[in-house]
Amino acid sequence: MPDLFDSPVLNPPETSPVLHTSRLRLRPLLPGDAGSFHRLINDWEICRRLPDAPFPYSAALAREWIAAAAADRTSGRAEQFALVDASSGELLGAAGLRFSRDGKSAELGYWLGRAHWRQGFALEAARRLTEWAFAALPLIRITASTAADNDVSAAVLRRLGFAPSGKGTQVFLCRPGQKLPVHHFQLPREPPANLATPAATLLVVAAALIDARGHILLARRPEGKKMAGMWEFPGGKIDPGEIPEAALVRELREELGIEVSACDLAPFIFASHPYENFHLLMPVFLCRRWRGIPTAREGQALAWVAPDRLVEYPMPPADRPLIPMLRDFL
Description:
single chain; alpha+beta; 8-stranded mixed sheet; 4-stranded mixed sheet; 15 strands; 31% strand
């Protein structure tokens, strides 16, 4: 994958994740992978599709690349993974994300040994990697590029929801001195809203829980949920026949294990936002008093945040307009 920047991003990941699918394990590349890595990638049909892969691809370069991947992970420049058969432990290829300087976008890249082509491994690995990235990292988009004649890789990206974003040329190390045509793709965290399409209204309710310091509780949507990785105000859907206060009391009990009285919920503001398949309408309440200690009960992360730091937390578009209003009020 091409180098996107010259200096490391801030706040690199604290641990090296290991990701799982039904058939694969995505783990950090290790020095012991160098032999298998070299045997797989030293193939013209692979190298001609990878901009930064010369051909022949030497064993020394394989060792250097794995060492560089470890350094990039430590510095927060990239997350590179070995694609390993979950049953046998055999190395099948590699995949990774290289981050932009500001850490808000990443470029996806992957390759498989030729014996493992056309078996769905690329789609499986890329889907798992993008799901994890949006859930765990503050990315707003993931990009990818393919050689113009790499129809299979382009099809994989389209199945993942990537949309074409342009065409260009790029130097491929296997063809020194030549610039080859490439196609660019991108996948935004949030699909664009279509204001012209009528959509059902979804009623939800949320609370700004405020502690004695004036900090506000945010919850991070867990992996597997839509807009995973985004921080939001606790709450949830209003059931048919349920009033907003009752729905919020129920949701706070289910999500956080706290008891709130309806009389302690002060109406504050509402959010109205069009999403792809529905229009969200969300009354927001302020709450300063509850019983119990807020505890994550649904796999979400929790954070108490000072009002002037709310802007540092990536939020769904419906929640973002609430930030200046809360800052002004508190």
